[in-house]
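Onboarding guide, step 5: your first structure request.
Type a short instruction followed by the sequence, for example:

Predict the 3D structure of this protein.
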Amino acid sequence: MSTTLENIQQQIGENTILLYMKGTPQLPQCGFSAQAVQAVMACGERFAFVNILDNPDIRAELPKYANWPTFPQLWVNGELVGGCDIIVEMYESGELEKLIKDAAASAETEKE
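The system replies with structure tokens like these:
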């Protein structure tokens, strides 16, 4: 049986664009997760998500692993991008869409 830390590392490693959030993209359970998911969805690429409300072990361990205390958390290409404020700020400046589109394109290239 794998540990929570191994699960987190696997999730981050296997998903080019990954959002740890409260709730789901269709039904966010907090305002910060709602803002973050709207910004990520507006970039137009598919992304994975983990509902931390259904995964209390991940909710407890991820902040230690990431050295980031709050949710949501956006990970792109195995790197923590940040939380809601950073995600929204990057979206408004156009940086988020470029980052996400570049990540999605490189993931497609790797599959070929």
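Each response can be followed by summary notes, for example: The helical segments are 4-14, 31-42, 56-66, 84-93, 95-111.
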